[in-house]
Design goal:
Structural class: alpha+beta
Oligomer: single chain
Strand content: 25-35%
Radius of gyration: 24 Å
Strand order of the largest sheet: 2-1-4-3
Number of helices: 5
Length: 187
């Protein structure tokens, strides 16, 4: 097996969005063919008859602009769409079991059937809160409920190859971290 196989290049588009992961050989080719600008290098070098070269860790392809997929969100207020907006997760404890819809401000207290007053809650949290306000029940929401936008941006998932590489390296390479939008969980 190639001893350098764990070294991969993170490829970014014109807007610095991650679009691909390439093997170390391809990363070097992109650099030498002037198809990409190298933003970060690994400390590892590769020797060849013409010299010793650092392996590119993060590359930016200046003529590539990734088209982000968008999906239309149905704005009609329904139990199903509230679950969908909240990712089928209780907004109090993050459970995904026995989900119900909770009125943040109970109907008995003037709460209405509106996006801003409805959240997904598990039966246990909904029962605990009952007809109380958040303050009275001493409970907090994981996020403020609001009407969804007309469009939702879909995240571009990592490829199986990228996931295998992260497992081989025991996590995300340090050289990539500032270019990824949020820290990824260690596989």
């Amino acid at each position: 097996m190639d001893e350098l196989a764990c070294f991969r290049g993170l490829v970014l588009d014109l807007s610095y969005r991650p679009v691909n992961v390439v093997c170390w050989r391809r990363a070097i080719c992109l650099e030498f063919m002037e198809k990409a600008d190298v933003l970060e290098y690994y400390d590892q070098t590769v020797n060849s008859p013409s010299g010793s070269f650092y392996i590119p860790a993060v590359l930016r392809v200046p003529h590539l602009l990734q088209v982000v997929k968008r999906r239309r969100i149905k704005n009609n207020l329904s139990r199903k769409n509230i679950f969908y907006r909240d990712n089928f997760t209780c907004q109090y404890c993050s459970s995904g079991e026995n989900l119900t819809v909770d009125h943040v401000l109970p109907i008995a207290r003037g709460g209405e059937w509106k996006w801003e007053n409805l959240v997904t809650a598990c039966a246990k949290c909904n029962s605990k809160k009952g007809q109380k306000t958040l303050e009275e029940a001493n409970m907090k929401l994981s996020k403020v409920p609001k009407a969804p936008k007309d469009y939702d941006i879909l995240a571009i998932p990592l490829t199986n190859t990228a996931i295998r590489m992260l497992r081989m390296r025991k996590g995300t390479p340090e050289e990539w971290r500032q270019y990824l939008s949020k820290p990824s969980a260690e596989p």
